[in-house]
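Lab channel / #folding
Pinned by the channel admin:
"Please post every new chain as: sequence first, then the structure tokens as a reply. Keep commentary short and put observations after the output so the thread stays searchable."

First post following the new format, from NK:
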Amino acid sequence: MDLTDLALSRLLMRNSRTSYSDLGKELGLSPQVVHRRVQSLIEADIIRGSYALLSFKARGAMWVMVHGRSNAPVMDDVDRKFRAIPQVAVFQVTSGNYVYVHGNVKDSTELADFVTAVQRDAQLSEPQVGIIPLPPSTGSVLTAMDLRIIQALAKDARRPVTDVAEELGTTVKTVHRRLDRMIKEDLIMLSINWQPDTLGDTISQIHLSLRDDVPREKVAFLLIKRYAPSIMRTYTFSNLPNQVIITYWSRNVREMQNVCRELEAEGIFASVVPNIIRAVYHYEEHQKAPLQEMLRQAKKR
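Reply from TO:
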């Protein structure tokens, strides 16, 4: 794994249907080299396929992250309990049994129930709750055909449009038009299953607490200018304006420690705390359930 592989994974996570040609233009590589790199990531079990889901916007849901130190003795037992909580999407375990639970909830009542269930099952003494900001809803509506297209791409987001059109009994032009609209209006999530715990490298969740007198724009500029190539994802929270969590790739622990020292030396953070990811659990059945329910409702109509 190198910075090019990381950039490629990041682009596919944003839109897993992006062509090898467009990926190559973005990275300065030929389509053939991009294809070889993707295949290598798949063979290394870092990328475990692509998928299509309803977006948070299409579900009318909030994206929340509950995190904290777990007192549970066995993380696999926590995983089994989370499979009974339909709002859980991803469960990450890091060094020192510090855990992150990503979920989607529809309102404040469901949020409270979700946090209570996660706190109980993961045995969190002091759970932290962050609400991740999402694009505003525009009242866009998904038709039955839109839902069927998402379902056809559910297990393979890179599936050819010709195959989808044939399965659904419609035209390639129709599938293209509807898919482009859903992407443009942020109604569909096209991504990859990226498994950082299979790497020999170090993937960390680095918590950055901003000083009260530091503008968030200054932090964003710093992260983009100096650290962006190694950042897989950045989390900001609408309810915690002084907190940022970055998912950071480094070749080893020493390199990660050096980056943390550099961040501390910037003088704009009250604290810099890294947690090394050691296991990631995905809950695909939970993610697919809203689509199945919408399809059932569409058939009734």
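NK: The CA atoms of residues 42 and 48 lie 6 Å apart.
TO: also worth noting, The two ends are 49 Å apart (CA to CA).
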